[in-house]
């Protein structure tokens, strides 16, 4: 096991590595060993395709602990060390299973790689035609419960937060998100609305908007209490509410892109597929097509949405609170945006 100060030191190593990768001085995730910056969208996308490897969901605690020990040993790694495949694999395993703020293990079902297999079926079921309100309750509750817990677990954890606060916030967010998700469906059943607008367009818009609002609500403590901002060496300068607001806003935008696109494209395919001769002969094939399309679109959109903004965000010091500006001479600071 790690020593008592190990988690704190390991968390700083992870944060520093993420910053240096963003600035372009680390090859930890680059399998070729080349020093490749992660400033561009394409580079972040390629990194996420590696971190979203499904095997990261079942990797043993023993292997993760060995990765921690290896990275602690190579804390001051040279370029040759970073080209070591063992070190590169340890970085990938740590970045995909360990929270960069707390250095705690992320539960398997809520690691970034779990988002696709858990939410794709929920999105598909949420967009099915409404036969009764009861048939919509379970998909909506399941989707917003998972989304809320995922957002809390993968949000910024650098501020002081008690367990009961997360539980209370989470319960309120789940209840409110589910209500607003079911409300338009209730109107559809109550007034027998059957136009394409009420059946397809409005549900997609509501799903996208509620996904973004779910992030804002479940991570509402970050803008209130402030999150850590660091210099390029990973040293904490202070806690900023403005950085917390920006982190939550950017993550909420990425969720709107993810779930809005993942719900919209299958609806478009379904609209045209219903007008084919094949559908008239095999009506059941519509659901197979729609489920397959949802999974394929989400399979692409998960790494795309995670890559829209860097996980380590940068913010000008002049945009932050006065006390932070007076505490450093740096013109630019960094923070963990979360996932």
Automatic annotation (TrEMBL):
Membrane topology of this protein: Multi-pass membrane protein
InterPro entries: Mtc
Major place of residence: mitochondrion
Segments passing through the bilayer: 13-36, 136-154, 166-184, 256-273, 285-309
Gene Ontology CC terms: mitochondrial inner membrane
Cellular compartment(s): Mitochondrion membrane
GO MF annotations, alphabetized: monoatomic ion transmembrane transporter activity
One Gene Ontology term from the biological process aspect of the record: amino acid transport
Keywords, alphabetical: Amino-acid transport, Membrane, Mitochondrion, Transmembrane, Transmembrane helix, Transport
Alphabetical list of PANTHER family matching this protein: SIDEROFLEXIN, SIDEROFLEXIN-4
Family: Belongs to the sideroflexin family.
Name by which UniProt lists this protein: Sideroflexin-4 isoform X1
Source organism: Delphinapterus leucas
Lineage: Eukaryota, Metazoa, Chordata, Craniata, Vertebrata
Gene behind the chain: SFXN4
């Amino acid at each position: 096991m790690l020593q008592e100060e190990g988690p704190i030191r390991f968390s700083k190593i992870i944060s520093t590595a993420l910053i240096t990768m963003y600035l372009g001085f680390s090859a930890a995730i680059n399998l070729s060993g080349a020093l490749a910056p992660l400033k561009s969208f394409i580079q972040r996308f390629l990194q996420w395709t590696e971190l979203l490897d499904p095997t990261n969901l079942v990797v043993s605690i023993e292997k993760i602990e060995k990765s921690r020990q290896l990275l602690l040993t190579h804390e001051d790694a040279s370029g040759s060390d970073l080209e070591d495949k063992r070190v590169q694999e340890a970085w990938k395993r740590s970045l995909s299973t360990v929270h960069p703020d707390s250095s705690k293990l992320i539960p398997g079902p809520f690691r970034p790689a779990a988002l696709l297999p858990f939410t794709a079926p929920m999105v598909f079921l949420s967009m099915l035609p409404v036969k009764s309100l009861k048939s919509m309750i379970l998909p909506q509750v399941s989707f917003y419960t998972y989304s809320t817990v995922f957002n809390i677990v993968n949000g910024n954890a650098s501020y002081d937060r008690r367990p009961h606060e997360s539980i209370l916030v989470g319960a309120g967010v789940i209840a409110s998100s589910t209500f607003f998700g079911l409300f338009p469906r209730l109107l559809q059943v109550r007034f027998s609305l059957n136009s394409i607008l009420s059946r397809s367009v409005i549900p997609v818009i509501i799903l996208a908007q509620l996904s973004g609002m779910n992030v804002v609500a479940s991570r509402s403590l970050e803008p209130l209490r402030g999150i850590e901002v660091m210099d390029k060496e990973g040293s904490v300068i202070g806690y900023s509410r403005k950085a917390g607001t920006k982190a939550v806003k950017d993550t909420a935008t990425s969720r709107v892109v993810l779930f809005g696109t993942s719900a919209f494209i299958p609806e478009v395919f379904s609209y045209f597929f219903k007008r084919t001769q094949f559908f008239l002969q095999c009506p059941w094939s519509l659901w197979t097509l729609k489920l397959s399309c949802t999974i394929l679109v989400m399979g692409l959109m998960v790494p795309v949405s995670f890559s829209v903004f860097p996980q380590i965000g940068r913010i000008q010091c002049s945009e932050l609170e006065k006390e932070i500006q007076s505490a450093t001479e740096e013109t630019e600071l960094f923070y963990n945006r979360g996932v």
